[in-house]
Amino acid sequence: MWGPEGLDEVEAGLLGPPEELKGRDVLELGAGAAQCSRWLAAQGARPVALDISHRQLRHALRIGGPIPLVCADAGALPFADASFDLACSAYGALPFVADPRLVLREVRRVLRPGGRLVFSVTHPIRWAFPDEPGPEGLSVSASYFDRTPYVEQDEEGRAVYVEHHRTLGDRVRDVVASGFRLVDLVEPEWPAWNTSEWGGWSPLRGNLIPGTAIFVCARD
């Protein structure tokens, strides 16, 4: 699943036709509990799930499955050059680093020529709106061009959650400057069947403003 709208890879085919995933080496970045990697393994691919959070990977261990799990920084990948055919990330890694080009260049390094990277992030336009599912989430409350990170702190003032904002143009330039060719930019529409409402996500908002941006990138 690429985002809260419910667009799944079977429907989207952004990594390529499902029947062609068999035998492919795939790196999942910011894998969390490795949901995407388990789906890839079921298609016959050989995924590796990477996350910087040991706690997230413990969830993956508890769920189980024959998937290699790697605890590492996406900006310093512990893999040899040209180790993977594909790389993917669904709301992982890239929004949480100050310099996404470090990650993108590392991914390009470990991809084989002709490889593909597909990653999804919260659509940049959402940065300008309150994170509310109702009508209050439809009025602009901040500058779309304000790139100040969103930071949550604990009682002692330590950052426990940081998310970085990049405009749509920033994301495109990051991709190109890192040596990729942008093949497609997908903005999923909210489907009629999805009646879910949680956090800042809802049919009301989803029918009016985009929520997810998916970048399809090629390593020529």
Protein traits:
25% strand; globular; 21% helix; Rossmann fold; single chain; 220 residues; two-stranded antiparallel sheet; alpha/beta; 7-stranded mixed β-sheet
Describe the structure.
This protein is α/β, with parallel strands linked by helices and 220 residues long. The strands form 2 sheets. It has a 7-stranded mixed sheet, with helices on both faces. Strands 6-7 form a two-stranded antiparallel sheet. The chain has a single domain, classed as Vaccinia Virus protein VP39 (Rossmann fold). The relative contact order is 0.18. It has helices spanning 9-12, 35-42, 54-63, 100-110, 168-177, 203-206; strands spanning 25-29, 46-51, 69-71, 84-90, 111-122, 150-153, 159-163, 181-186, 212-218. The protein is globular, with a radius of gyration of 17 Å.
